[in-house]
Amino acid sequence: MALLRIIRPLNCLIAFFSVGVGMFSAVQPVASISLLRLLAAALAAFLVAAFGNVVNDIQDTAIDAVNRPDRPIPSGAISGRCAGYYGLLLLSAGLGVSYLASLAHFAFACCVAALLIAYANWFKASVLLGNIIVSLLTGATLVYGGLLASHWQLSLVPAFFAFLINFSREIIKDAEDVAGDAQNNIVTFPVRFGARAGQKLAALPLVLLSVLVFVPFRMSLYGTLYCIIVAIGVSLPLLFVSFLLFSRDCSQEVLHRISMVLKLVMLIGILAILFGRDVCEFVFSA
After folding, report:
1. 1-152 has which fold?
2. 78-90: per-residue pLDDT in tens?
3. Which residues in the chain come in under a pLDDT of 50?
4. DSSP three-state, residue 277
5. Could you give the CA distance from residue 90 to residue 88 in angstroms, rounded to a whole number?
């Protein structure tokens, strides 16, 4: 069970399905798609994301002992050394599977893995830079899927949306972890400027995103169903969350709930693209 919890399986599943969404957002109305390459790319994203989560937990052992003592390593469910070997296994498997998708996917996965290591070891403690890197990596998952299609540039649209919402989530999680971060000399934005300032910063991209999600519909990239889903399931929740973040000092529990709501909004956004894209026919090949 500890081996499953340490990889944060929900986050990994989001990465898995985001590859398909990225491909779907960039493919043409009638296209032949290699099912093997799609599955290989999605599985590689799952495994590399799992590796990143393991590395992050190893580096956060002291912080989690204060903020999240129930996490696998500080709780003693798994040792740091065992987690390290597990992470190497996940990375090796992820890079190996990525090569089945294409050489470009393999190179992309190598770059992502390098950034994950750099983030956990050097950039996590920086003000905003670490948040930006994690958010870029989240958006990169969609571009990774877009590389399976002929017009990968179209995947940059949902990738940018993913960047904005994940940047907010990262700031919110930092505000939630202020006590442990300060105790371990981790100087995040909320530690340096205060949790309330962190809340206001986190709200800004959400307000922007609540408007920008309608741009693809206006550009005829996505259909009417997309517009309906994002209006109800994305834009309104984002505005409500932004109001909470701007209007009051949120407790650690409330910030955690907001973070989970934003994760749910991400899933709804994925569904909006899947059901709202005006794509008529796909042909899956081996």
Report:
1. Tetracycline Repressor; domain 2 (1.10.357)
2. 888 898 999 999 9
3. 30, 279-284
4. strand
5. 5
